[in-house]
Amino acid sequence: MGKAIPIIIVIALAVYALFDVIATPRDRVRYLPKPLWVLVVLVPAIGVAAWLVFGKVRTKPAGPPRPQRPIARGPDDDPDFLRGL
Fold first, then answer.
1. Domain locations in the chain?
2. Contact yes or no for 17/48 (Cβ under 8 A)
3. pLDDT tens across 18-72, in order?
4. CA separation, residue 84 to residues 68, 74, 76, 80 (Å)
């Protein structure tokens, strides 16, 4: 049983990396085209490690800024409420 654990881990990482290559958009893949990365990932441990380290751009592209939510304040901290007293 102890000898099977590393094999199970390598297979699980290979399946994860294969699905990750397939699901990653083309503009986020580095160095090789996606079909070649699929072949590289099929190499048991080295291919998976190469994909995880070099294959994908890890930073998200900058999108539009998120709108700021107004800060919730109590009535005693709200100047508009205090002015109306």
1. 4-55
2. yes
3. 999 999 998 889 999 999 999 999 988 899 999 989 988 877 666 777 777 777 6
4. 26, 15, 12, 7
- Beta carbons of 10 and 45 less than 8 angstroms apart: yes
Q: b or e along 30-53 (b: 16 or more beta carbons within 10 Å of the residue's beta carbon)?
A: eeeeeeebbebbeeeeebbebbee
Report residue 39 as tokens.
């072949």
Mean pLDDT (whole number) for 3-10:
90
Question: Chain centroid to CA 26: how far?
Answer: 15
**pTM listed for this prediction:** 0.64
